[in-house]
TrEMBL record:
SUPFAM superfamilies: C-terminal effector domain of the bipartite response regulators (SSF46894), CheY-like (SSF52172)
Annotated GO MF terms: phosphorelay response regulator activity; transcription cis-regulatory region binding
Protein name: DNA-binding response regulator
4-aspartylphosphate PTM positions: 61
A Gene Ontology cellular-component term: cytosol
PROSITE patterns per record: OMPR_PHOB, RESPONSE_REGULATORY
Key word DNA-binding present: yes
Positions of the Response regulatory domain: 11-125
Keyword vocabulary terms for this entry: DNA-binding, Phosphoprotein, Transcription, Transcription regulation, Two-component regulatory system
Stored InterPro entries: CheY-like_superfamily (IPR011006), OmpR/PhoB-type_DNA-bd (IPR001867), Sig_transdc_resp-reg_C-effctor (IPR016032), Sig_transdc_resp-reg_receiver (IPR001789), WalR-like (IPR039420), WH-like_DNA-bd_sf (IPR036388)
Coiled-coil annotated spans: none
One GO BP: regulation of DNA-templated transcription
Length: 239
């Protein structure tokens, strides 16, 4: 499952009063690479396990012999903000809303598909514990100029030309589709999101300014071409 083998690192607590279900879930998890798995059959036991091993995520049944999963979650939240996934035979909307309203991250109804449990559990772990990946903007060569979208500049010899946020958005879209036509609508949407109607003339102004920074002769462009009636094309020599 990749991503630094997150499944081998995280401690998982399974809370269910049925031994067979705990054993079955334990087996699913170990088959998928999870190794640090703990079990509890009641609320009091689960709280004790949490105090001693501090799990990274809990799978909670709703119906427990000394209370219910909702009360257990409320007790856990007094000392921990670890993610919780409810796994219950009670599938009524009220129970789902109650569980999610108390701060659970997901709610699965029994009977369930093992693969669904694994996918949802892994999704929660990745969302909670993996840092969001910063999108890296490209650096590319246009003729004798280096276009650094991450740094927001165009380098031409010893000269540097700063790029505006809109110019970066437009060049990013053009570079994603390099050597292919990008429609004017697609470019406007990339720069102005859903409120792009009526920006065609403004787009032309931005394209002109971009050409002034990446072309030797902006009036006779060789790299950022106008495709009449359609849009624009950024020509990039690969390799």
């Amino acid at each position: 499952m990749g991503d630094g083998r997150i499944e081998a690192q995280k401690k998982i607590l399974i809370v269910d009063d049925e031994h067979e279900i705990r054993t079955m879930i334990d087996g699913f998890l170990r088959k998928e690479g999870f190794t640090r798995i703990y079990q509890a059959s009641a609320c009091a036991e689960a709280l004790e396990v949490c105090r001693t091993i501090n799990p990274d995520i809990a799978i909670l049944d709703v119906m427990l012999p000394d209370g219910d999963g909702f009360g257990l979650l409320a007790a856990l939240r007094q000392s921990s903000d670890m993610p919780v996934l409810f796994l219950s035979a009670r599938g009524e909307d009220e129970d789902r809303l109650l569980g999610l309203g108390l701060g659970a991250d997901d709610y699965i109804v029994k009977p369930f598909l093992p693969r669904e449990l694994i996918l949802r559990l892994t999704a929660i772990l990745r969302r909670v514990y993996l840092p969001p990946m910063k999108e890296q903007r490209p650096v590319f060569v246009s003729g004798d100029r280096i276009v650094d979208l991450e740094g927001g500049i165009v380098q031409h010899g010893s000269k540097e030309y700063p790029l505006t946020a809109k110019e970066i958005a437009l060049l990013s879209k053009l570079y994603e589709n390099r050597n292919r036509i990008v429609t004017s609508d697609a470019l406007c949407q990339a720069a102005w999101n859903d409120d792009y109607y009526g920006y065609e003339n403004t787009l032309m102004v931005h394209i002109r300014r971009i050409r002034e920074k990446i072309e030797d002769n902006p009036s006779a462009p060789e790299h950022l071409l106008t495709i009449r009636g359609l849009g624009y094309k950024l020509l990039i020599k690969e390799g």
